Amino acid sequence: MVRTLVRSMLTTGTIFLASPCLAQATTRMCDVSEQAGTPCLSSHKHLPKLPAGPLYWHLDEFRSKADAERSAVQTSSVVESFGSIWLFTLERAAWRPRAGRHVSTIGPLPVKAARTYSAEYLRSVFLPGATAPLHVHSGPEAFYALGGDTCLETPAGVQIGRGNGNSLVIQAGPPMLLMAIGRSERRGFALILHDAEQPPTTLTQAWQPSGLCARELANDQAKAAPGK
Fold first, then answer.
1. Distant-in-sequence, close-in-space partners of 224: CB < 8 Å, separation ≥ 6
2. How far apart are CA 37 and CA 27, in angstroms?
3. Secretion signal: which residues (predicted)?
4. Count of domains in the chain?
5. C-alpha angle 33/153/14, rounded to 5°?
6. Containing domain of residue 122, as a range?
7. Which of 143, 24, 34, 40 is nearest to 84 (CA)?
8. What is the CATH number of the domain that holds 121?
9. What is the pTM of this model?
10. What is the CA radius of gyration of the chain?
11. Is residue 75 situated within a structural domain?
């Protein structure tokens, strides 16, 4: 099925899948289900101001929600996903919580000046070949994958993240296509840090991808074929 779709996309130049996931455009709050499909909103946080200097997204793992909340600061959000308690924090690169296991620091985030900000944290599970509708963001977006491979295509080209813990960052503005590539499901989080007076996400048809992520997926699927 995936190979047939990929051949069709490469031939026609169309990057839409039969059942695209309404990923970053979603406002549906997450529940206990973590099945592949439409991503959900894990947390929304209003931020009257941000720390001075270059800003990073810190991901830390805790044994309990109470432990995470004790380590939280004003720019932190506590999220329960993928069998763990997570503390997501926007801070300088050297910042660390008082406890917990530090998992990743992603950035710097190319944030533009605004009166106030909002942070949207999304959770997603994509099977290889799953994608989201074409969209733009009013602030930078960062991705972190616990497992699986990531492809992000924009008019400027393509970014690829491979293996557990891969991360990507994109600035506000350009239209984008996010696709899970590789040979296993992609489980991960996304952060959209945006001007609170602007919508975080706007769907668009003003640009069409050239098939760079579809080609990566096709190569991955070819490697998995018998005899490869």
1. 183
2. 14
3. 1-23
4. 1
5. 90
6. 8-50+112-213
7. 34
8. 2.60.120.10
9. 0.87
10. 18
11. no
Instruction: Please check whether residue 164 lies inside any domain of the structure.
Output: yes
DSSP letter (8 states) at residue 98? S
Does 203 reside within a domain?
yes
Q: What span, in angstroms and rounded, lies between the C-alpha atoms of 144 and 158?
A: 16
Chain centre to alpha carbon of residue 18: 21
Helix H segments across 53-182? 65-71
Number of neighbouring beta carbons within 10 Å of residue 65: 14
- Report the alpha-carbon distance of residue 156 to residue 163 in Å, rounded: 23
d(CA 40, CA 80): 13
pLDDT tens per residue across span 8-44? 334 333 333 333 443 345 678 988 888 887 789 999 9
Please indicate, yes or no, if residue 1 is contained in any of the structural domains: no
- Which residues lie below 8 Å from residue 185, measured CB to CB, with a gap of 6+? 36, 125, 126, 127, 128, 147, 148
Separation between Cα atoms, residue 168 and residue 152, nearest integer Å: 8
Own/partner long-range contacts of 82-87 (Cβ < 8 Å, ≥24 apart) = 82/34, 82/123, 82/146, 82/187, 85/61, 86/59, 86/60, 86/61, 86/62, 86/189, 87/58, 87/59, 87/60, 87/61, 87/62
First to last CA, the chain: 19
Q: Mean pLDDT across the stretch 44-73? A: 97
Contact 176, 170 (CB under 8 A): yes
Please name which of 169, 194, 208 lies closest in space to residue 12, comparing C-alpha atoms: 208
Query: What are the tokens at 197?
Result: 């007076």
Per-residue pLDDT tens digits for 211-220: 999 999 999 9
